[in-house]
Design goal:
The protein is mainly α and 287 residues long. 76% of the residues lie in helices and 0% in strands. The relative contact order is 0.12.
Length: 287
């Protein structure tokens, strides 16, 4: 396989398109922190940092889970178990991603660079959580919640209430949709002794918990207006996003999980992009 094909395989395997979940929240946070349009170089390095961090997290996950992926019907065709990439090459791509992330953090400011190892530790640790805790979904949420905090640090070199609110919203939102996504691995988790909310409390209760987490997400997103200059345009985005979340839950039923992938990627991608769009519009025209 040529080097270019290996790079393509790497980005396909780590599902680079799933960056759409966290990246919009980083952009949102940057616009709010800037109270308008952020400096171009700041946005550039924030995006590069996001790509680098996520690429490392996914590369590490693929190596850490390669044994499990090989015996899971849903994941057996991933690059390592299928033989398209070796663990060694995945490590190389992953380490290169770390270097990109660290250089981006260094280019942003001192605090971003100081906190960057902690971010890497958190996103790496997630890959092992299914081996010992049913709260792995929250750890995934914690990993993605770094995005708005990191972007705020990149702009203001501080952590604020607003960035913490956005982080909490991202964490609960992510945990909610990851619980839904993990329903398709319920039998596998039971067979191989892995931990998950669906395994612990069953399908019906998992659906209820996911809904509850998303209700909390919306409430937290609403609360952002009390600590920022955002107004009606942003609120409209939150309202629209809440309807998309409702539709997501209507797609998945206790006795019909066939639309999980549609609910997982399509609807949550729309949620994050909608929130980003209305936040940016509010930052530019809502004052």
């Amino acid at each position: 396989m040529s080097f270019l094909k290996e790079i393509k395989t790497f980005f396909t395997d780590i599902k680079i398109e799933h960056t759409v979940f966290a990246l919009p929240f980083a952009v949102m946070s940057a616009f709010i922190a800037s109270e308008g349009i952020p400096q171009k170089e700041k946005i550039f390095w924030i995006i590069i940092a996001m790509i680098g961090a996520r690429s490392w997290a996914m590369a590490f996950n693929r190596v850490a889970d390669s044994g499990l992926d090989a015996v899971n019907p849903r994941t057996k065709n991933r690059a390592i178990p299928s033989g398209l990439l070796s663990k060694q090459k995945m490590w190389v791509f992953g380490i290169f991603s770390i270097l990109i992330f660290e250089f981006a953090a260094y280019s942003l400011n001192r605090l971003a660079f100081i906190l960057s190892p902690l971010a890497l530790l958190i996103i790496s640790f997630y890959s092992y959580t299914k081996r010992f805790t049913s709260l792995s979904h929250l750890f995934l949420g914690l990993s993605l919640s770094i995005a708005p905090v990191g972007a705020w640090v990149a702009i203001r070199e501080e952590i604020s209430i607003v960035s913490a609110e956005l982080a909490l919203a991202v964490m609960l939102w992510t945990a909610g949709f990851d619980i839904l996504y993990s329903l398709q691995d319920l039998d596998f988790d039971r067979t191989y002794g892995l931990y998950s909310i669906p395994k612990k409390i069953g399908v019906k209760n998992s659906l209820t918990l996911s809904k509850s987490l998303h209700i909390l997400t919306v409430l937290i997103l609403f609360s952002v207006i009390f600590f920022s200059f955002l107004g009606k345009i942003y609120l409209l985005g939150v309202i629209l996003s809440s309807f998309f979340l409702i539709y997501e839950h209507l797609l998945i039923k206790e006795n019909d999980l066939s639309k999980i992938n549609k609910a997982f990627f399509n609807m949550n991608g729309i949620v994050s992009l909608t929130l980003m769009f209305f936040t940016i519009v509010d930052c530019l025209f809502g004052k």
